[in-house]
Amino acid sequence: MLYGLSLLAGIALLTLGGESLIRGAVAGARRVGVSPLLTGLVVVGFGTSAPELVVSIDAAMNQQPDIAVGNIVGSNIGNILLILGMCAIICPMVVQPLALRRDGLVMVLASLLFIGLSFGGALGRIDAGIFITGLVGYLIWAYVSESRHHIPAAEMHASEAEEMTKLPTTGWMIAVALVVGLGMLIGGSQLLLYGAIGLAQAMGISEAVIGLTIVAVGTSLPEMAVSVIAALRRHADVAVGNILGSNIFNLLGILGISAFLQPLPLAPRVALFDQWVMLGAAGILVLFLYTGMRLSRWEGAVLLAGYAAYIALSFTIF
């Protein structure tokens, strides 16, 4: 009971803290004159991944690599199969292929890079350097290409920043939002890890499974909120672009930082099963987007069914 309450409290704090941090960061970026393009590309991208960042770093530093890695792999799987599946059922999403071609390609390549670098059974500091270098290269490429040319991707990332409403308006309100958000993220990560590890031990479930499922879904709630709101507003490019960007940040940025701070051995089930599910989810999303230029309700149902099957297998076979 105590572990379950701690888990729920941690998820709630991570969600509220992530929301506060994003709003404070976006308001601060606007206040100092940062362009909507750069705000959407970097601030919103990093902001929605803040819970994954804090939890994975915390887990890595506390010698819990299965949760650190499982959180990222599970979040990427859930972002596509659960969140985009749900968004497509809420509202079929017509997308601009040109707006998503680069990010879809980078997401698939980042997934392949993860599989390649983890082939030896662990991610070390050299691997971390490759991940982080890849993220920096992606951000530079994205910003330069979008600022020089009028392409749909630029409009999409600018729209991500514009989706944020009811922002703090004064300097002290921005500071409070940032400090409170960061504090809630740190406190939420501690509660989440305490509850998740305790629950895993009490139920006889591996930490990898808990990290890949419960922790991953809990830390993905900011992405879910942004994407669902965008879907309800018929802003399909923002919803899909948010997920693609988040998955790229998760692999190249968060996993890179976590592995740099503490080398991360890979759980055998992740190597045998989960990383391939992550790659398969990325591939089927790209296939759906570029064959029909939309995510229909039946495609959303396929994604959701895939996630249900993944969860069932996670708690039975593995």
TrEMBL record:
Domain Sodium/calcium exchanger membrane region residue range list: 5-143, 175-315
Membrane topology qualifier: Multi-pass membrane protein
TM spans (from-to): 77-95, 104-122, 128-144, 172-197, 209-232, 244-264, 276-293, 300-317
UniProt keywords, alphabetically: Membrane, Transmembrane, Transmembrane helix
BP GO annotations: intracellular calcium ion homeostasis
Domain of life of the source: Bacteria
Protein localization: Membrane
Keyword hit for Membrane: yes
InterPro entries reported for this sequence: K/Na/Ca-exchanger (IPR004481), NaCa_Exmemb (IPR004837), NCX_ion-bd_dom_sf (IPR044880)
Gene Ontology molecular function terms on file: calcium channel activity; calcium, potassium:sodium antiporter activity
GO cellular component annotations of the record: plasma membrane
UniProt protein name: Sodium:calcium antiporter
Organism classification: Bacteria, Pseudomonadati, Pseudomonadota, Gammaproteobacteria, Oceanospirillales
